[in-house]
Amino acid sequence: MDSPSRVFAAVLPASGREFNGNEREQGLEVRTVNRQGPGNRVREVQVTGTAEVCCPADQVSVRVTVGNSKDSVDEVTNSVSRRLEYIIQSVRQHGISDRDTSVRRFLHREADLYHMDAEVVVTFSDFEKMERVCGVFLEKLDKSVCVGTPQFYHSAECLSQLRRRVCVSAVENAQQKACEVSQLLGQSLGPPLLVREEETKEWRNEDEEYGSTGQGAAPLSHLPCIPKITASSRVSVSFSLRDRSRKKL
Fold this sequence. Notes:
Helix content: 25-40%
Low-confidence stretches: 1-32
Largest sheet: 5 strands, antiparallel
Structural class: alpha+beta
Radius of gyration: 29 Å
Shape: rod-shaped
């Protein structure tokens, strides 16, 4: 009866190999194990693979505020409402649905004057459309209307897709190296036995300017930054091995 044997192989981390979507493979470790089981022998290769994926923000919100003061409630309400109606109609004409627009009003009195402040917050997924709408507001509305700086952010669906993508990329990187190592050892890679995500990380990067034309472009301090989130994943995958030289009975 043959005694169990173990063969270990190591592949050192490779330096800076880029993948599509800013994915980066950071190397892996390979361990080939020959196990003695009851009535059969199971051979496997255990692989640790990593990947990084970077994703820019996919949504932006713009806050438009309106304020005025009048001697009566009706006067100040009518004055602010006319501007609000123009803002809302302009947003609708650009194809923005009401569910992506919120409106708030606040009326208060100071001495003999009535003050009304209002705000409209519009959410865009099309950044060029956001620029056109803001341009209309700045051109058509007077100084009683203030258009705020665009605020970029990641939607929940965008983050969910990012996490799935980086995990899948790490598994793909591990499978590729496991296939190459199995060929080197004269084996044929079989189906996966176990896939385990061991570590995930996320961090935000806001050092790139909105509207930058390239790596050599000078930063424009008056342009808002589009934040990016980078996610990393490390997975451990075990594949079964088959001896290519063994003849089938």
